[in-house]
Design goal:
The chain is mainly alpha-helical. The chain has helices at 4-35, 45-55, 63-70, 77-86, and strands at residues 90-93, 100-103.
């Protein structure tokens, strides 16, 4: 059995890692906006919506969740996710129904 102190240390470490990752993403996005780099890649409306939905997530997400959160039409998923992957914004882990997507 794990002691309370060790549990709280592990929980604290996990929370710190989540905050660090979120801060890093926010900081990178702000730098890109300052330098104008964020708009250097002209993404389609659907790809942009998908990126925004995924950018708000802490962990990789699947197609169903991202379609719902982004508001894109399900039949527009393939071109939008392909555009994001081809431009290096998103990485896919797993295949077919088990595929998960995360921001690079």
């Amino acid at each position: 059995m794990m002691s309370d102190g060790k549990f709280y240390d592990m929980l604290s470490s996990l929370i710190d890692g989540v905050f660090d990752e979120t801060f890093k993403r926010t900081e990178n996005k702000e730098k890109a906006m300052e330098t104008g780099e964020e708009n250097s890649q002209d993404l389609s409306k659907d790809a942009s919506s998908l990126y925004e939905a995924l950018d708000k997530q802490i962990k990789p997400q699947g197609k169903r969740f991202l379609v719902e959160k982004s508001g894109i039409q399900p039949h527009k998923w393939n071109p939008a996710i392909k555009e994001l992957k081809d431009n290096g914004f998103v990485v896919q882990t797993g295949n077919k129904r088990g595929a998960m997507y995360s921001i690079v």
